[in-house]
Specification:
The complex is a heterodimer. By secondary structure, chain A is α+β, with helices and mostly antiparallel strands. Chain A has helices at 2-8, 30-37, 100-115, 131-139, 174-182, 214-218, 289-294, 330-334, 366-376; strands at 13-17, 20-24, 63-68, 81-82, 92-95, 162-164, 189-191, 198-200, 224-226, 239-244, 253-259, 262-268, 302-306. Chain B is built from 19 helices and twelve strands. Classes of the chains: A alpha+beta, B alpha/beta. At the A-B interface, helix 3 of A face helix 15, helix 16 and helix 17 of B. Bound molecules: flavin mononucleotide (FMN), iron/sulfur cluster (2 copies) and FE2/S2 (inorganic) cluster.
């Protein structure tokens, strides 16, 4: 019987996502099938990370509805499934943006991820390249229904390279997998349970392993940031350039984030999904601490040219050059005072210690703007 | 007096010892299985018996066993789930404490059926004294040739190990249990792969509840067919119920699933009625995770039919007007109990026990807990009720493991059936601090609402 199935099994499985069909090799996840199709139907991800084994399944932002299990067993799956960890079956039909249920659940997940998030984007180094900003902008609701003080943590120092802001962490476990898979001995992890779980080293300890800097690149939010870049600049003012050097520890292929001739930050190269690149020969472009933290001179690098940035337009090269400052003020356009996300340059309430973070309005979302457009029309 | 298969001998003097257990007919089933049956015969017998998992989900055990992958050259494992931490459930404790050899015998037979040479009992950390009882029983079984190498000269080897948990409810979820058993953080795994394919140390594994595995002994003794005749429909055999709350006779009872809920609560053979002559207000029939039911829906289904103590009948009406058999933790609340406070306690429990892996459960359980604390302290707002409803809705079904659902269901059921009590709590905040709402009109067992 088993042999029979093996013989009959087609080399490719046909899967239909939001009415678009594609043939993919068996073993492909729904998410990756969707990424092959591309466009709006790709579920957002916060914890899945292609180069990290075992990642995914945790954040629940990528939930989709399987309306038909397969040709053999066409029954729909009763629960929404995490597309990043569910493999396709031949004839499977999936609904992502065409499923009210999935969209509603996703909205719920975004709310859960944001209720305890400090929303301190104006002072966060990740702002502008943060997956959580994109997610909340695309899928969140305006305002917050949480009227309790937000969760706080005791601060932990992770040493000279890595800055930890636990309040921003979304518990995606990516940094834990990265440390497990890239270093010989993981020295940090998740302590405690549930609501109180946190990323820490247990006994105050510096993270100094040669490859530990990669946790900064995998962190989807501003929980782990580069101390050598801290408060140096906003990412959208820096210019990314691909560069390489001969390194005996890593691939040496990086992205330099420059302002003028000054190298402010070095990161691994990322692909369109904001994940560290996997090159054609199958190697992953992780970089070592030396390349990341110590090589901050243009002369250390052979520059290849400007990095192509497509997905995160705010970072695209020259985005802010020759731009005219709008004549209208934000209140004039919006009909109300700016919300946090737009408030970056003014003295924001976030910096005022007498105002509790939970009292500050949440970031503006697409709804805010849609409403605005509607009102205008 | 109903049929008793598990606890029949539990009170025989000295039954904890091997000698007495053996004299009372113990290890006959093991002998029969190992000497006269093939492993597949045993699986077949369990299938015929219709035995369903007693750990909570009620999944048919024989079917589960037949899913176990059997790749060449890779060891398989049986793991006994003795983590029993569900509030209101204490039947496994009773069984292991009073008649430990029954579990050991069940484990030997089941290990034989599944081909597990190394079998583990993962036991709740707080059950420290039971660990000693089990280890003693294992040692006695070993001394008498029921464990070890080449048991009864059949060529079958088997060892049983007891592993203590560290007091986490989540480690009762089977994949979290396996992680913990491997020495890792007790986070539930993302499924698939299921344990039957990749379980303990990535080997095919079956995880079963203490009571499930103990029930294999009578099944082999009386045959699966006879076992299936006990009970009703797909609720075959006997079930242990741990009854607690405002009843006259709390304790662990073995029932044959044909008695009505009313009989179970009011008959002197079982719970012996509500304590202090009070009236029944509500009940959680299957452990803290299942929906609470008001008295009228507990004793009779929405259709007005008598509700029985079995899987199907307790589930009649789905979650709208029914509940679940769950793990058999029967919690009875009398007219003096406050549903809001009661649900608040549960919400706090689930917040505390969430492993924190997935966002809806980690954030949702703590949010609900905070809202309940506010309701309890008299500062609740009317909008809190709807907010609770939305939060539980956004958790339900969207998490990695069923703990998220288990946290959502009690809140959903409490609001569904006792909404006016929640409202009263908010509108009469001061009074609610001093007295409780009493019987809601629809929670009154007499007369039954249409
Ligand atoms: C949060 C959680 C806690 C659980 N705790 C227990 C437990 O303490 N004992 C148990 O037997 N099953 C428990 N279960 C159910 C197990 O995951 C599993 O379904 C059961 O052990 C299977 O055994 P059965 O088929 O014999 O019922 C729990 C499930 C969840 C989600
Ligand atoms: S610190 Fe960042 S990478 Fe690590 S778990 Fe938190 S959000 Fe994820
Ligand atoms: S549902 Fe809760 S307990 Fe289960 S994996 Fe998710 S966070 Fe952990
Ligand atoms: S990306 Fe799939 S669950 Fe997080």
């Amino acid at each position: 019987m088993a042999e029979e199935i093996k013989q009959e099994a087609p080399k490719k499985f046909k899967v239909t996502i939001d009415n678009i069909s594609i043939e993919v090799p068996p073993g492909t996840t729904i998410l990756n099938a969707a990424r092959m199709i591309g466009g709006d139907i790709v579920p957002p991800t916060m914890c899945y990370y292609t180069p990290l084994k075992e990642s995914g399944g945790k954040c629940r932002t990528c939930l989709v509805e399987v309306s038909k299990g397969s040709d053999k067993d066409p029954r729909p799956m009763p629960k929404l499934v995490a597309s990043c960890r569910t493999t396709v079956m031949d004839g499977m039909e999936v609904k992502n943006i065409t499923s009210e249920r999935a969209l509603h659940a996703r909205q719920g997940v975004v709310e859960f991820l944001l209720i305890n998030h400090p929303l301190d984007c104006p002072i966060c180094d990740q702002a502008g390249e943060c997956d959580l900003q994109d997610l909340s902008y695309g899928h969140g609701e305006e305002g917050s229904r949480l009227d309790f003080p937000k969760r706080t943590f005791t601060k932990h120092d992770l040493g000279p390279y890595i800055q930890l802001h636990m309040t921003r962490c979304i518990m995606c476990y990516r940094c834990v997998f990265a440390a497990d898979q890239l270093t010989e001995k993981r020295e940090h992890g998740v302590l405690d349970r549930g609501y109180h779980s946190e990323i820490a080293t247990y006994i105050e300890k510096a993270l100094t392993n040669d490859f530990i800097g990669n946790v900064i690149d995998v962190c989807p939010v501003g929980a782990l940031t580069d101390k050598t870049f801290r408060f140096k600049n906003r990412v959208w003012f820096t210019r990314p350039e691909d560069a390489h050097r001969d390194c005996d520890k890593c691939c040496g292929k990086v992205t330099l984030w420059k302002r003028g001739d000054e190298v402010l930050r070095v990161t691994a190269r990322k692909d369109q999904w904001n994940e560290v690149q996997t090159y054609e020969d199958g190697t992953v472009g992780w970089i070592c601490n030396e390349c990341r933290f110590e090589k901050k001179n243009t002369s250390d690098w052979i520059i290849e040219g400007p990095t192509k940035v497509s997905r995160h337009s705010v970072k695209s090269v020259n985005h802010y050059i020759n731009m005219l400052k709008p004549k209208e003020t934000i209140p004039e356009v919006m009909g109300r005072n700016p919300k946090l996300l737009l408030d970056i340059h003014s003295v924001s309430e976030v910096n005022d210690p007498s105002i509790h973070l939970s009292k500050i309005n949440g970031p503006a979302t697409s709804k805010t703007f849609n409403k605005l457009i509607e009102n205008k029309e | 007096m109903g049929v008793k298969l598990l606890l029949e001998k539990a009170h025989v003097e000295g039954i904890r010892t091997y000698e007495v257990y053996r004299r009372e007919g113990g290890y006959r089933a093991a002998e029969k299985a190992l000497k006269t049956m093939s492993p597949d015969d045993v699986v077949e017998e369990v299938k015929k018996s219709g035995l369903r998992g007693r750990g909570g989900a009620g999944f048919p055990t024989g079917l589960k066993w037949s899913f176990l992958a059997k790749p060449e050259g890779i060891p398989r494992h049986l793991v006994c789930n003795a983590d029993e931490s569900e509030p209101g459930t204490f039947k496994d404790r009773y069984l292991m404490e009073y008649i430990p050899h029954l579990l050991i015998e069940g484990l030997i037979i089941s290990s034989y059926a599944l081909g597990s040479n190394n079998t583990y009992i993962y036991i709740r950390g707080e059950y420290a004294w039971i660990v000693d009882i089990l280890e003693q029983a294992i040692q006695e079984a070993k001394n008498n040739g029921w464990l070890g190498k080449n048991i009864l000269s059949t060529g079958f080897d088997c060892e049983i190990y007891v592993q203590r948990g560290a007091g986490a409810y989540i480690c009762g979820e089977e994949t979290a249990l396996l992680e913990s058993l491997e020495g890792k953080r007790g986070n539930p795994r993302i499924k698939p792969p299921f344990p039957a394919v990749q379980g303990l140390w990535n080997r095919p594994t079956v995880v079963n509840n203490v009571e499930t595995l103990s029930a294999v002994v009578p099944i082999i003794n009386i045959t699966g067919e006879e076992y299936a005749k006990i009970g009703v429909g797909r609720s075959t055999g006997t079930k242990l119920i741990s009854a607690c709350g405002n009843i006259n006779k709390p304790g662990v009872y073995e029932i044959d699933m044909t008695i009505s809920v009313e009989e179970f609560i009011y008959s002197d053979e079982w719970c012996g009625g509500i304590k202090n002559g009070k009236r029944l207000k509500a009940c959680i029939p299957g452990g803290s995770s299942v929906p609470i039911l008001p008295a009228n829906l507990l004793l009779k289904t929405a259709k007005g039919e008598t509700r029985y103590m079995n899987y199907e009948s307790l589930n009649d009406g789905g979650f709208v007007s029914g509940s679940m058999m769950g793990s058999g933790g029967f919690i009875v609340l009398d007219e003096d109990q406050c549903i809001v406070k009661h649900t608040a306690t549960l919400a706090h429990f689930y917040r505390h026990e969430s492993c924190g892996q997935c966002s809806p459960c980690r954030e949702g359980t703590s949010w609900m807990d905070k809202i309940f604390q506010r309701l309890e302290s008299g500062k609740g707002k009317m909008s809190d009720i709807d907010l609770l409803w939305h939060i539980q809705f956004n958790i339900d079904g969207n998490t990695i493991c069923p703990l998220g659902d288990a946290a959502a269901w009690p809140v959903a059921a409490a609001i569904r059936h006792f909404r006016d009590e929640f409202e009263w709590h908010i509108t009469h905040a001061e009074e609610a601090q001093k007295r409780n709402y009493g019987l809601a009109h629809y929670a009154d067992p007499l007369p039954i609402v249409q």
